[in-house]
Design a protein that fits this description.
This protein has 180 residues and is an alpha+beta fold. It has 2 domains: 76 residues, Alpha-Beta Plaits, CATH 3.30.70; 97 residues, 2-Layer Sandwich (Alpha-Beta Plaits), CATH 3.30.70. The protein contains 6 helices and 8 strands, in the order βαββαβαβαββαβα. The chain has a 4-stranded antiparallel β-sheet with strand order 2-3-1-4, sandwiched between helices. A 4-stranded antiparallel β-sheet has the order 6-7-5-8. α3 packs antiparallel against α6. The longest helix is centred in the middle third of the chain and has 16 residues. The radius of gyration is 16 Å and the shape is globular. The termini are close together.
Length: 180
């Protein structure tokens, strides 16, 4: 299982050492805990594989709050799900610069009526596509000044999410050992 924590170690906010984050997961009974980069990407085997995802995400968010005084949304995916999301991206063929490809991973599938409210021209020339609980993004000039922000998608879609670039997601897929 992969936990994607939003807003960890961004600037001076929500600072957490990865050793401490791994320990927090382990104290909850999770096994094979590994982190990737310094930005809240945790691969682990859940202590209770029968626990629902919302319950698991809530448990992890509660640990972050009690242990680190951090309020952070937690989005969960398996490596198989992330690989499928990357494959579904209509921008996946743009391998000329993978740094321009991103996914926003949502905590739930947005309702179709909310998806219809998204403006296809918002942020042009940047482009997006909503696929179930993921938003594929292509930033031809980079993401720094784009109007296609996580805040835009959360506000319009009425869901919570976190964003990662293509390279990070590929690395997480390779680290995950969750059975399909």
């Amino acid at each position: 299982m992969i936990a994607l924590l939003r807003g960890i170690n961004v600037g001076k906010h929500n600072r957490v050492k990865m050793d401490d984050l791994r320990t927090g997961f382990e104290k909850l009974g999770h096994a094979a805990v590994a982190t990737h980069l310094q930005s809240g990407n945790v691969v682990f085997q859940p202590a209770d594989p029968t626990m629902s995802r919302p319950e698991l995400a809530e448990s992890l968010a509660a640990m972050l709050k009690s242990r680190f005084s951090i309020v952070s949304p937690v989005v969960l995916r398996t490596g198989t799900e992330l690989a499928a999301a990357l494959d579904r991206s209509p921008f996946a063929d743009r391998e000329d610069d993978l740094a321009l490809l991103h996914l926003i991973l949502l905590d739930q599938v947005p309702s179709p009526d909310r998806v219809e409210l998204l403006d296809a021209d918002h942020g042009a020339p940047d482009r997006f596509a909503v696929n179930d609980a993921d938003v594929a993004l292509w930033y031809p000039s980079g993401s720094a000044r784009s109007k296609l922000t996580i805040n835009y998608f959360e506000k319009v879609l009425g869901v919570t999410g976190t964003a990662r670039n293509h390279r990070t997601l590929v690395a997480l897929v390779s680290m995950d050992q969750t059975p399909s």
